[in-house]
Amino acid sequence: MTRRAVVAGISGAILLILACSVAMGTTEEPAAAPTVNAGAADTAKAVGVLRAGRAFIDQTSFRVDVDFASQITTLSRTDNVKKRGITTASMSGRVTEIRMIDNDVYLKTDVDLQGVGHEWMTLDPARVPSNFALSFAPGKNDPGGSARLIDAIVTARVDGSEITGTFDVTRVADGTGINFRPPLGETFPDSARSHPFRATLDADGRLVGFLIPAGSGLPNASLRYSDFGAATGVTRPEGAVAAPEALYPQLGLND
Fold this sequence. Notes:
mainly beta; 12-stranded mixed sheet; two-stranded parallel ribbon
């Protein structure tokens, strides 16, 4: 069985991070995960626990690792309080890095983009597409994008430090972190409306893992949060030039 994990948006082919999408395949699927029997009260409790588990996003620094079937990986270190962030993304050996300091955004990529070089560039935040959000503002400041996954939960149950359930892939809004899109001209299968997930909390109740198994045409994907309170280590790159006009249309999730 084959599955495709692609990042939509740059010259129709690439990975220009933060806004990453998983394109769903149409081939044979593995056996469905067991159904989570959870009523409305159980689900509401679980969603509340998960949302509370994200409070650290606005309170301390953290690291988040995003993995798409080991084909695409991103590592971000973010401190929304001090307005510092750095993200590195890799696909097929090509690397893109973004640094954020206060209101300044810097980008460097070794991906060959039309009309764009490989030096450090400064971006105009006002020209960055909304689905490539680069911000320290609440609601837009988590490179993992776990809030969008939680908002799409259909059923869930808490069992100690683990939350299991299902979410509706079609309800996951575009944004930073994991995105889902069907192949061009196709639609999501019905099974995508009740796709399993498993989330994990640490001893302090913080969300540390959100795992999505393969199925419904999706490859496996995961978010992992760690290194709470650690310094980001981000510095301003020397010699950065203004990003060319050609860059901005190649950012984000283009249709």
